[in-house]
Design brief:
The protein is α/β, with parallel strands linked by helices and about 325 residues long. It folds into 2 domains: about 160 residues, Alpha-Beta Complex (Quinone Oxidoreductase, Chain A, domain 1); about 140 residues, NAD(P)-binding Rossmann-like Domain (Rossmann fold). It has 11 helices and 18 strands. Strands 3, 5, 6, 9, 10, 17 and 18 form a 7-stranded mixed beta sheet that branches. Helix 8 links the parallel strand 14 and strand 15. Helix 4 crosses helix 5 and helix 4 crosses helix 10. The N and C termini lie close together (about 10 Å).
Length: about 325
């Protein structure tokens, strides 16, 4: 099969690779669409020890089952596999399984390839009216869906009455904003620094879209629920400033691990901080269903390119030359 292989920092090679070995209970899926995630960029830059080269990256996939129980069916792929027996798995929170594995994280090869192996239970059928490109967005959008669900549970008011701020207008942030809207929020602001992204964000869901400077000019404590879809010290500092006393911060982004939170303010004003990692199987299924029935909008904002041009796509993202919140590759 053809695959885009991460060979060393800032190096991706499009080449022939062996077809996946198919363990018992797994299905073989022909990949028709796969998104580039921020975690793929971290690996590409050599910043993720969980993804050592050589490795096929990519975990946001949709395609057709060519071998397995759903043979011939169009599916989107939940890339997160877990043991199924630990306390987390038994409680429905397999995203917290200590033995969890994800496509594109060693030892599992990823989806920047023509074929992948996936547990059959991780496949969700796609209706005929939904494109592979839209279906491949189930994975990144499920991160936002999960975070919104956790934040909504922690709020001391109904979501429809909450003033919500999403920091970051990439696919994770935009997915969180779309999930907020789908789950009942009405007052949603996206804060995004990349000026090229602002028109696409405004079209995606009728959101109020502001720059970080504009949000910084607002009085502190103006938002009931703040979702950080970036995860750097600067965005955590913004979240700490923006949330009201008794409000909620949901932290989804994985930019870096240190700094930014105003712990004294969070303590004195009883601000709830929630770390939100990926999604549960139910979150993934609910997100896919919301895509299929149109509750997450037209989803026409990705930039779609051939897999063989994936190296150039990564370089464009690194150079800040991409206006779309997401690039999807077609193997």
């Amino acid at each position: 099969m053809k695959a885009l292989v991460y060979t060393s920092p800032k190096s991706l090679v499009y080449r022939d690779e062996p077809d996946p070995v198919l363990p018992d209970g797994q299905s073989l899926v022909r990949v028709d669409a796969v998104g580039i995630c921020g975690s793929d960029m971290h690996a590409y830059l050599g910043h993720d020890e969980r993804r050592p080269p050589p490795l096929i990256l990519g975990h946001e996939a949709a395609g057709v089952v060519v071998k397995g129980p759903l043979e011939g069916k169009r599916v989107t792929v939940n890339p997160l596999a877990a043991c199924g027996t630990c306390r987390a798995c038994r409680s429905g929170r397999s995203n917290l399984c200590p033995d969890r594995q994800i496509l594109s994280m060693a030892p599992r090869q990823g989806a920047f390839a023509e074929l992948i192996a996936s547990p059959a239970d991780n496949l969700v059928e796609i209706p005929e009216h939904v494109s592979f490109e839209k279906a491949s967005l189930a994975e990144p959008l499920a991160c936002g869906w999960h975070g919104v669900r956790l934040g909504k549970t922690a709020l001391d008011q109904v979501l429809s009455e909450a003033r919500c701020l999403v920091i970051g207008g990439g696919a994770i942030g935009l997915g969180a904003a779309l999930s907020l809207k789908a789950q009942g929020a009405r007052d949603i602001t996206i804060c995004e620094a990349n000026q090229q992204r602002l028109p696409a964000l405004r079209r995606a869901g009728g959101f109020n879209v502001e720059t970080p400077d504009a949000v910084q000019l607002e009085a502190p404590g103006g938002y009931d629920l703040v979702i950080d879809g970036v995860g750097y010290a600067a965005t955590r500092a913004s979240a700490s400033r923006a949330v009201r006393p008794g409000g909620v911060i949901v932290h989804i982004g994985l930019g870096d691990g240190e700094g930014g939170l105003d712990i004294r303010r969070m303590t004195l004003q009883e601000i709830t901080f929630i770390g939100a990692y990926t999604y549960t199987p139910e979150d993934f299924r609910e997100t896919a269903k919301a895509i299929f029935d149109g509750r997450l909008g037209a989803l026409d904002w990705p930039d779609i390119r051939p897999l063989e041009d994936g190296g150039a796509a990564f370089a464009d993202i690194l150079a800040g030359q991409v206006s779309a919140p997401k690039i999807i590759l077609n193997p």
